[in-house]
Amino acid sequence: MNPAAKLRTAHAVLGGIMLLIAIAIFADTITHVSSGQQAVVGPAFFPFLIALGLAVNGTVLVVNALRATFAEEGWSQIDIGPVALVLAGLLLQLLVLETVGWIAATTLLFAIVARAFGNRNLLANLAIGLIVAGLSYYVFNELLGLSLPAGWIVEHFLD
After folding, report:
1. At how many degrees (to 10) do helices 102-116 and 80-100 cross?
2. Would you say 139 and 147 are in contact if contact means Cβ atoms under 8 Å apart?
3. CA 148 – CA 128 distance, rounded (Å)
4. Do 29 and 44 contact (CB within 8 A), yes or no?
5. Cβ-based neighbour number of residue 13 at 10 Å
6. Transmembrane region positions (predicted)?
């Protein structure tokens, strides 16, 4: 099997898996929806939205895999460095999340991912990451009532 055919097969398989997950989420959500619900955006809204996104992306992958032709040259060179850097950032966040909290861990993750995508301005990436992490922490903890780990940094300032 030539490399282009392998890529088409991989896209078709991934698209099929995404479609199966979308169907499973949709079916599971339908079985848990309460019929007496009055709210416009209820507990089933986001699972339906996720299922729709997965279904659309899966369909696009399958359709493109069935009709697309891939150039033989150029695409097969994989730069593993950025992928490894993103994975290292995710692992770091996983390891330090409970200790340093959401804001610090996500700020570091943002800076690492930005570096993996080629941005070398560490201070700007840390500042932007801090803003994004702080806003997401506020939205989840204060507006949605979902608790993200605060960590010792936030707890120190709140005491």
Report:
1. 170
2. no
3. 19
4. yes
5. 13
6. 12-33, 45-66, 78-95, 101-117, 122-140
Rounded mean pLDDT of the chain?
A: 87
Is pTM beyond 0.70? Reply is: no
Read off the tokens for 114.
């930005």
**Residue 146 CA from chain centroid, whole number:** 18
Rounded to whole angstroms, how far apart are CA atoms 105 and 144?
Answer: 20
What distance in Å separates the CA atoms of residue 56 and residue 18, rounded to the nearest whole number?
Answer: 9
Closest by CA to 62, choosing from 109, 19, 111, 122, is: 19
Q: Which residue has the tokens 């060179």?
A: 77
pLDDT computed for residue 44 by the predictor: 81
Q: In the structure, what pLDDT confidence band is assigned to residue 17 with cuts at 50, 70 and 90?
A: very high
- Compute the Cα dihedral for 92, 141, 50, 127 and give only its sign: negative
Angle at which helices 151-158 and 102-116 cross, to 10°: 140
Q: Structural domain boundaries of the chain? A: 3-67, 80-158
**In this predicted model, what pLDDT tens digit does every residue of 18-36 receive, in sequence order?**
999 999 999 999 888 766 6
The tokens describing 154, both together, are 């936030």
**pLDDT for residue 156:** 76
